């Protein structure tokens, strides 16, 4: 537990293990609201189920009405698409499926990597309305888990649970009374840490090449312009007020220099490169081990 004496509520959702810690046990009504929020998010955004809202876009072009949260996701992705020169894109789903990260988790590569289609050619995203001009596999995994953490936090606050800590398999949101010391997982050895950072009120999210890895050096962080896994960065962390932003920026750090991201976002960050060196913002307050 992040705070001594708190209790936890654990469950699985959107392919992730969640643990929500609170000063007192959550009521049955609170738990049902949280699980319903997870189920609704999965029903809208999952590319792994044929009945989701975005699954229709993979079958045929058209106009799709998405949940309210889409109005925040769209501009965030558009900004990061621009900053990364198209490398970070919600249209990466087809490239992931081509490499074997598909609904059946076949983990079998179907030929050489394929780039994602250019945004302006196939997609118009205005608020909660998604209009596609060709079949496209949308994947918002780079920011979706963080957005869901924010939504769960909102459910708790609206239910009177102001203090809580959400752990979505290492992506963290702290609404507790005190900072929490968090170990930064070694990108090549999950049993070790490369440092410790203090998380106050806000979110800390990570992205790493050793998570969701398969085959001959394949992993889930693909460059949309090539469809191939990124090789220059092995791990990244981002801190921001919202988990959605922190989650998205952790992935963006695989493509965009952290100092450039700070010109657009209020964040702190750490990037570890494949050659062993690390870069970080001055306000990423923690200790890196030598």
Mean pLDDT: 92
Helix count? 8
Low-confidence spans: pLDDT under 50, at least 5 residues? Answer: none
What share of residues are in beta strands? Answer: 25-35%
Question: What count of structural domains?
Answer: 1
CATH class: Alpha Beta
Helix content: 25-40%
For the largest sheet, list the strands in their spatial order. Answer: 1-2-6-7-10-13-14-15
How is this structure best described in words?
The chain has 290 residues and is an alpha+beta fold. The chain has a single domain (7-288), classed as Roll (T-fold). The protein is built from 8 helices and 16 strands. The protein has helices at residues 28-45, 55-59, 70-83, 93-98, 119-122, 141-158, 243-252, 258-262; strands at residues 7-13, 16-22, 62-65, 123-126, 129-132, 165-168, 171-174, 180-186, 189-199, 202-208, 213-214, 218-219, 233-240, 268-273, 278-280, 286-288. The strands form 4 sheets. The chain has an 8-stranded antiparallel beta sheet, with helices on one face. Helix 1 (28-45) runs antiparallel to helix 6, helix 3 (70-83) runs parallel beside helix 7 (243-252) and helix 6 (141-158) runs antiparallel to helix 7 (243-252). The mean pLDDT is 92.
